[in-house]
Amino acid sequence: MSESVLRVENFSVDYGVGERAVRAVTDVTFSLGRSEVLGIAGESGSGKSTLVYGLTRLLRAPGVIRSGKAILRVGEDSARRDIDLLEASERDLRSLRWRHVSVVLQSALSALDPVRRIGKEFDEVLRYHGQGKSRAERRSRAEELVTMVGLKTDRLDRFPHELSGGQRQRVMIALALALNPDLVIMDEPTTALDVVTQREIIDELRELRERLGFAMIFITHDLSLLVELADQIMVMYAGRVVERADSADLYSIPRHPYTVGLMNSFPPLTGEIVPMTGIPGSPPSLSALPRGCAFAPRCPLASDRCLNETPPLLVEESRSLACFNSSSSVRERLVISS
What we know:
The protein has 338 residues and is an alpha/beta fold. Among the domains are: 112-180, no CATH class; 259-337, no CATH class. 32% of the residues lie in helices and 23% in strands. It has 12 helices and 12 strands. It has helices spanning 48-55, 90-96, 108-111, 118-128, 135-148, 165-176, 195-212, 223-229, 247-252, 257-263, 304-308, 330-337; strands spanning 4-15, 22-33, 37-41, 63-74, 81-84, 101-104, 183-187, 215-220, 232-237, 240-246, 314-316, 319-321. The strands form 2 sheets. An 8-stranded mixed sheet has the order 6-7-8-3-9-10-12-11, with helices on both faces. Helix 5 (135-148) packs across helix 6.
């Protein structure tokens, strides 16, 4: 792995405090190298968005960061320094956001001001961070950014409702890249977009990352997107990491039954037509997690041990895994059991 731009250690988030607090993210640890892409996958409620909003201190009440570290490395060469995002003051965070770490939110229409033209959004970000001494310079930079994501410059004079969903999402990506950040977080940026637009945005993100060299965290429930884009994939369930591996290894040999279930929930892009099996049942309520492994009630391979003990996350060579019944043949065993 290259030099890490973000190092997260034993990070946990609760909703609420005291005995009735809901454990939303539990002991997440990972490292993200410079220019690498980490994909985070899982169903709704698995803790993906809570994790990144907690790391960037954008978590709203009653969300509470319970423990952990989030070390962001910023700067160039000898001027590089480590900043613990969880210890940074609000003033420091305001200077770090956009310049060193930026976020593309799920709903671009909600993130953009409905009564402000797109160009004003760019002007404000650039002006606040001291980029461009004049309005003309900031306009020129804004035109460069929207062109970079495949939009015409006249879109800067439009309101958000005058753009399509894909165009609004491209605007958000351009805003996120305005100050050449070290880390860009994409929170399900292709949600509610058609498959053609999804493909275009994924291709653009891949090209922009290779050209600009930023690291990326890409959150989605669709593993098929991550296989093409991410260097590593981290699968979350009920607030915990259950598997993490290089994307090619995870796709070819998934080891956790939940990972196999996610992969069987989308159709293959090539080859024979096969039925999609999905995952039986629903994710558990975080306020009433089952005893033992949280996935056990939905897992066809669950044993008595799974129902009574929580499997620890173990590092096996290049893979992290939390399962008592995992093996390289888990996919075949699931087919037989069904």
